[in-house]
Amino acid sequence: MTKMVAGAELTAMVRDSIGHAKAGTISKTPGILKLAASRYYDPELFQKEVDQIFKRVPLMLAASSELPNPGDFKTMEAVGLPILIVRGQDMIARAFINSCSHRGTNVAVAPTGNAKRFMCPYHGWTFTQKGELMGVASADDFGEIDKSCYGLTPLPSAERSGLIWVIANAKSDLVIDDFLSGYDKLLANFGFDKWHFFSSRVLAGPNWKIAYDGYLDFYHLPVLHRNTFGEDMFNQALFYAWGPHQCVRAPTANLIEMDALPEDQWSNEDVMSGVWTIFPHISIASFGGGGRGVMVSQLMPGKHVGESFTTQMYLTQDPPTEQMLAEVDAQFKFLEVVVRDEDYATGLRQQRALEGGGREFVLFGENEGGARRFHQWVDTLLAADDEELKALFRPGAIQPGA
Fold first, then answer.
1. Could you give the 3-state DSSP secondary structure of residue 36?
2. Most CB within 10 Å of its CB: which of 59, 92, 111, 377?
3. Nearest-angstrom CA–CA distance, 104 and 136
């Protein structure tokens, strides 16, 4: 076990969790919340969520360990926008719209790779790792052009705590660090900047909010997952928030055991246990077996209200040895079964049932404060214009659920 390196803020969270574990309590949000069932299937609301949330706030699109070397790149589509992330020779990760300034096709086609430069496969225009246009094919025939004006379009991005955030809007002036609300400093205790990328896959799921509700829900663990891992799991949860981002922890017996130890003997694994969610679309859950690992679930809305797609990335603290490889692979495959056949299968049935129109409301109890706070943030961002959005994340701002 690795020694804890956390600061005072994280220590205070653990101390609060210990207090609840010893007292046999959880923090509750008073009253039962009713939300309109249509928020999970209304196509107009869904499009507004894509435009007002996913196209305006930073999205965590890559782990640093996916691009460990100069020239490493990753391509993806986020809410309809083709994106290229590349690590330059200066080790800075930059993001661009993956669209040639000549005719607009993708300049990088492979999902991942390593390149010193990017040559458009259509006409051969060439771009540097910094997005600069360095070469126009048959330049004399094409005509005079100021290459400095026709580089790839950069996107606001930031690499923090071993994760890379990108705003899918080239004109955005939202400060990414403000949006992170100090949460990235807590995530730094994982040490992801030194971890290793193992594998990834994509799973189809229900409406993105149905899927995200599940990330913030321990209430279902011993019921839905009773045949896989949940039989002895707590159905109680403690919720801790930094802006719209939340950590979900269970008041388990090991917290009481931690209380008997000096803080400098707490393990990093215990301190960082639980599920760490990054609004609006990331869940990070820790797992043992085959060495310490985490599954990063990257949730994105689909093209229609009733669908979403989740990229599951598995990261390991140490490079898997030959002996560990089979165990890590088995762990990752097991988690695929759990999410696909239990979480998302249930979510898809929920989706179809709600779309049937027979239920006016869904309910969130006093013990489901994390999902309640999440929906508050969704509604707040839907109502906020760009200036109000920035103001929400300025230091000292009054935020939803505060």
1. strand
2. 59
3. 14
Tokens of 46: 């869904």
Written as one letter, the residue type at 397 is A
Beta strands in 124-274 (DSSP E): 126-128, 133-135, 154-155, 157-160, 163-166, 196-205, 238-242, 245-249
What is residue 267's DSSP assignment? Answer: B
Asked if 41 and 351 count as a contact pair (C-beta separation under 8 A), the reply is yes
Short-list 248, 267, 321, CA closest to 290:
321
Q: How far is CA 193 from the centre of its chain?
A: 16
Q: How many CB atoms lie within 10 A of CB 377?
A: 22
Pairing of strands 112-114, 72-78: antiparallel
Query: Looking at the chain, how many residues does it have?
Result: 402
Alpha-carbon span 187 to 279, nearest angstrom: 14
The whole-angstrom separation of Cα 156 and Cα 140 is 34
The predicted pLDDT at position 3 comes to 45
Q: What are phi and psi of 220, to 5 degrees?
A: -90, -10
| CB within 8 Å of 132: residues ≥ 6 apart | 147, 148, 151
Sign of CA dihedral 186, 189, 192, 193: positive
User: Residues 229-234: what's their mean pLDDT?
Assistant: 80
Position 156, amino acid:
P
pTM: 0.95
Residues in contact with 400: Cβ distance below 8 Å, sequence separation at least 6, in sequence order: 244, 373, 376, 377, 379, 380
Residue 173 has pLDDT above 80, yes or no: yes
Whether 1 has a pLDDT exceeding 70, the answer reads: no
Domains of the chain with bracketed CATH: 8-57+181-390 (3.90.380.10), 59-173 (2.102.10.10)
- Round to whole Å and give the CA distance between 279 and 374: 8
Q: What region does 255 belong to: left with phi over 0, alpha with psi -120 to 50, or beta?
A: alpha
What's the distance, Cα to Cα, between the start and end of the chain in Å?
35
- Write out the H or E segment, with its range, that includes residue 311: strand 308-316
Largest CA distance in the chain: 78
